[in-house]
């Protein structure tokens, strides 16, 4: 099964052309390495309404399974990606963000400053990744192993539960 992915870079400087977006391409490369398909890519500024609108548009058009944002998850005054994400999701998926933070704590204590979130809008999973290329790829690596199953569940694939043991 191919996972259809959108990559949304959130950065004021990259959106203005003042700094090259290195994270979006790094995440794209990892997606391709997994054998999945990058269907959408965009760079937008750290504006809550603009982020929310883009997430809604991408989710509701029905062409994506997963949206990976990068940037805007820290303590900076303009870091509003988690708020924009929470404004549009129907159901939270806290285990993904918890797993990323837990794994990242083994690399840097700064991981505890991440406010990244994850959740579902309809049948699309939205996950906030960090803005640094290295951290974004590392965090994606933490959750990559469960994304296929998550998408199977969201698509209501009849084979999604195969291989699960029933516990009585």
Residue stretches low in confidence (pLDDT < 50, at least 5 long) are: none
SS elements, strand count? 6
CATH topology: Molybdenum Cofactor Biosythetic Enzyme, Chain A
Overall residue-averaged pLDDT value:
95
Please describe the biggest sheet, giving its number of strands, its sense, and whether it closes into a barrel: 6 strands, mixed
Which CATH architecture is right? 3-Layer(aba) Sandwich
- The tally of helices reads 6
Strand adjacency order, main sheet: 2-1-3-6-5-4
Written as H for each helix and E for each strand, in order along the chain, the element string is EHHEHEHEHEEH
- What structural class do helix, strand and pairing data support? alpha/beta
Q: Give the overall silhouette.
A: globular
Distance between termini? 31 Å
Write down the CATH class: Alpha Beta
Percent of residues in helices: 40-55%
Radius of gyration: 15 Å
Q: So, the CATH homologous superfamily?
A: MoaB/Mog-like domain
Description:
This protein is an alpha/beta fold. It has a single domain (4-154), classed as 3-Layer(aba) Sandwich (Molybdenum Cofactor Biosythetic Enzyme, Chain A). The chain is 42% helix and 19% strand. It has a six-stranded mixed sheet, with helices on both faces. A hairpin with a 2-residue loop joins strand 5 (118-121) and strand 6 (124-129). Helix 2 (23-33) packs across helix 6, helix 3 crosses helix 4 (81-88) and helix 5 (94-105) packs antiparallel against helix 6. It is globular. The two termini are 31 Å apart. The relative contact order is 0.18.
């Amino acid at each position: 099964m191919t996972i259809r992915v959108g990559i949304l870079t959130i950065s004021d400087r990259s959106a203005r052309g003042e700094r090259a977006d290195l994270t979006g391409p790094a995440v794209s490369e990892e997606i391709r390495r997994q054998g999945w398909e990058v269907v959408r890519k965009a760079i937008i500024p750290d504006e809550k309404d603009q982020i929310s609108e883009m997430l809604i548009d991408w989710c509701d058009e029905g062409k994506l399974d997963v949206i990976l944002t990068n940037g805007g998850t820290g303590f900076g005054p303009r870091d509003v990606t988690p708020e924009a994400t929470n404004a549009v999701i129907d159901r939270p998926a806290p285990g993904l963000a918890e797993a990323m933070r837990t794994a990242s704590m083994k690399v840097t204590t700064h991981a505890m400053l991440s406010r990244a979130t994850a959740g579902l809008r309809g049948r699309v999973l939205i996950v906030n990744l960090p803005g640094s290329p290295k951290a974004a790829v590392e965090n994606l690596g933490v959750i990559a192993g469960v994304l296929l199953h998550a998408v199977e569940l969201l698509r209501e694939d009849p084979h999604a539960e195969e291989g699960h043991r029933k516990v009585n």
